[in-house]
Structure formats: C-alpha cells, structure tokens
C-alpha cells in the first residue's frame, strides 16, 4: 500500500507516467479484509448531546455531533466549512473526496452548534479555528492541519467516551457509522446515496448493509426460539 501511494503521488506530480503503474485491474490487486463497522446507537448519541464540557473537549464533541447531524460529513468537509456556504437554511458545498456538489438542509441542532462560533475572529471565511492559523491556504498545509486535527480530536473523543461510559471507539469517522447505524432501513437506499454523496448506488448498498441486520436477526430467532 505504501508503494502504491508513492506511485500515485509520483503520477499526480508528473514525475512518472502511468505506463509502468503495477497496480490496478491488469496488475497487482491489494486485497484487504472488510473492516468491522460499529456506530453509536441513539442513546449514546444523546449522551454526547447532553454533556457539559468546556474548552477543546466541548469543541471536539461539537465537531462530532455536527458530522453526525450532516449524515456523517467527513472531517475535511467539516473543517473547511465556510460561512459563505449557508443560504436559506441550507449548506452548499462540494465534498472534498469526490468533488460532488450539492446542498443539504441545516438541522436545528447543527445550526445551534454553528452559531457558537459566530463571534470568533474571522479568517479565510472558515467557521472553525483549525485552518485559521494558516496565512496562505497551501493545499499541502491544509491537509497537514486537517490530519493533525484528526489525531487531536480522536485522542480527546477517546477520553470523553471512556469518562461517560461509551465503550465503543469514538472518532470523527464513527459519526458516519453512527448515522448509518441509526438510519438502518428507515431511509430508502436512493436517499441515503444522496446523503452520503456516493457516486454509485452499489457503494451505498454495500455500506448500509453493514448496519441493517434486522432480517438476519429475525431469521436466527425464528430457528432458535423453540
């Protein structure tokens, strides 16, 4: 995987062309085991919503909840959120991962969190402070700051979970799993595809399949309950 990453970076920076690329359909295929995806349930999210916190821990939970309220918005999209993205009760943005542009209604809970930052010193138009330390928005430095923020957030969220009886791993990415866990089969797969901004609906089906277990659970009970 490291070698593949180096190749991809070299191609993106025009150091080599892709003729010698050894990976992909006709080359080396890296097979990884499916990761176990576990999200928080509604009761655990309510615990986070009710916490009385201060300082950076308050900020960490704010960002986690905001990601959850926006259907599992990725950390890079949360931290690059700008005030100019809000119009008529909606947020308009292009997802950093695949550049898919769309808008989503701002839930009341999300707007309440966002308003906590309205009096912060403005810089580059960002809502949150992580990228305001940069004088120039160099793409490399932006990514480095986001990566650093992710590590710091994960450490704080881990402490918060432990202190409040949440025995699951708590990270920014788990906000996405938690939304999927609670959504279950309540929302149609087509709508979920739009919320997750997946390019292909099969990706949504595969992802959501990690969290919808009612049929298999009922099937097991039908055999064992005798």
Give the % helix.
40-55%
Quote the beta fraction: 5-15%
Shape: globular
| Low-confidence spans | none
Helix and strand content put the structural class at mainly alpha
In terms of topology, how is this protein built?
Layout: H1 2-12, H2 42-50, H3 55-69, H4 75-79, E1 86-87, E2 90-94, E3 101-105, H5 108-115, H6 139-163, H7 172-183, H8 189-196, H9 201-208, H10 214-224
Antiparallel strand pairs: 1-2, 2-3
Task: Describe the protein's architecture and organization.
This protein is 50% helix and 5% strand. It is built from ten helices and three strands. Strands 1-2-3 form a three-stranded antiparallel beta sheet, with no helix packed on it. Helix 3 packs across helix 6 (139-163) and helix 8 (189-196) packs across helix 9 (201-208). The radius of gyration is 20 Å and the shape is globular.
Q: What labels would you give this structure?
A:
226 residues, 10 helices, 5% strand
Could you give a short description of this structure?
The protein is mainly alpha-helical and 226 residues long. The protein has 10 helices and 3 strands; from the N terminus they run H-H-H-H-E-E-E-H-H-H-H-H-H.
């Amino acid at each position: 995987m490291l070698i593949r990453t180096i190749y991809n970076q070299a191609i993106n920076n025009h150091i080599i062309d892709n003729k010698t690329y050894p990976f992909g359909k006709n080359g080396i295929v890296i097979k990884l085991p499916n990761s176990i995806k576990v999200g928080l349930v509604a009761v655990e999210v309510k615990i986070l919503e009710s916490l009385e916190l201060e300082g950076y821990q308050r900020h960490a939970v704010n960002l986690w909840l905001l990601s959850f309220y926006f259907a599992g918005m990725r950390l890079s999209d949360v931290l690059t959120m700008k005030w100019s993205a809000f119009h008529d009760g909606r947020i308009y943005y292009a997802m950093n991962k695949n550049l898919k542009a769309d808008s989503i209604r701002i839930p009341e809970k999300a707007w309440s969190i966002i308003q906590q930052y309205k009096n912060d010193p403005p810089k580059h138009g960002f809502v949150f402070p992580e990228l305001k330390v940069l004088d120039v928005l160099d793409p490399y430095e932006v990514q480095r700051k986001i990566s650093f923020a992710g590590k710091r957030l994960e450490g704080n969220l881990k402490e918060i979970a432990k202190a409040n009886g949440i025995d699951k791993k708590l990270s920014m990415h788990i906000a996405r799993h938690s939304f999927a866990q609670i959504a279950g089969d309540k929302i149609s797969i087509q709508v979920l595809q739009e919320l997750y901004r997946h390019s292909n609906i099969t990706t949504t089906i595969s992802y959501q399949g990690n969290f919808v277990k009612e049929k298999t659970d009922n099937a097991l009970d039908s055999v064992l309950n005798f």
